Amino acid sequence: MSLIHSSFPAPPVIYGRNEAIKEIIDHIGGKFRTLVILGVPGIGKTCVASAVLYEPQIVERFGIHRHWADLGDVESLDDFRNVILQSLSCEAPVISDNGISTMSIRQDRYQPSRTQISFSTLGQPKVLPGLLVLNDFENVWNSNWKREAEDFLHELLNMPELKILITMRGAMGLPQDWWRVEINPLSLREAKQAPGRSHIGLAQFLGI
Q: What are phi and psi of 88, to 5 degrees?
């Protein structure tokens, strides 16, 4: 029997994004169920979302029920659903003095963690908090099965304590009840604080 291994990201090295991270965490604690990180390619959306997952407030609130799904390679609605189900089937890595260990479960079981509802009984939600990050969501949002994908997200949100954090490039047509934040280029002062940046790399880092 094969195993599904979580694609949970490692803790990122990040500079100049403290305000954005704090704003996202504040809104995760608020009324919004779906939150979106927007920005041009390479601006740092994925890095910011990864950093949010390791913030002490988020770890304390969600614990092992933090989930990460990379959507950049999905080509169909079935791919989309399967990637999310795989993510929900894996617990977040446990951080200890010896480093980070990633847990996995058996592929043939597809049993959600305690946070999750059974996908055969979507009408019976659990109430433990969970955070699901959907990375590179524009691939889904620009597809011809966008409506079905949105319906699937609504099904997921039958879990009362689930929050969904999305990273994507464009904001066209997003639902009004999705909170969003734009990741802007760093200031020159902030960018200079990042070590190991060449002049060319610095320009890319600034988004210019």
A: -70, -15
Cβ-based burial of 175 (10 A; exposed 0-12, middle 13-18, buried ≥19): exposed
Helices (H), 159-198: 188-192
114, pLDDT greater than 70 = no
Write down the pLDDT at residue 113: 40
Q: Report domain extents, the chain.
A: 3-206
Let me know: does 137 contact 106? Beta carbons within 8 Å: no
Ramachandran area for residue 42 (φ above 0: left; ψ -120 to 50: alpha; else beta): left
| Tokens matching residue 124 | 């019976």
For domain 3-206, the CATH class is alpha beta
- CA distance linking residue 53 with residue 64, whole number of Å: 10
Q: Looking up tokens 């055969």, which residue turns up?
A: 120
- Structural tokens at position 55: 């913030």
DSSP assignment string, 98-163: TEEE--EEETTT----TTSPPTT-TTS---S-EEEEEESTHHHHTSTTHHHHHHHHHHHTTSTTEE
The average confidence (pLDDT) of the chain is: 79
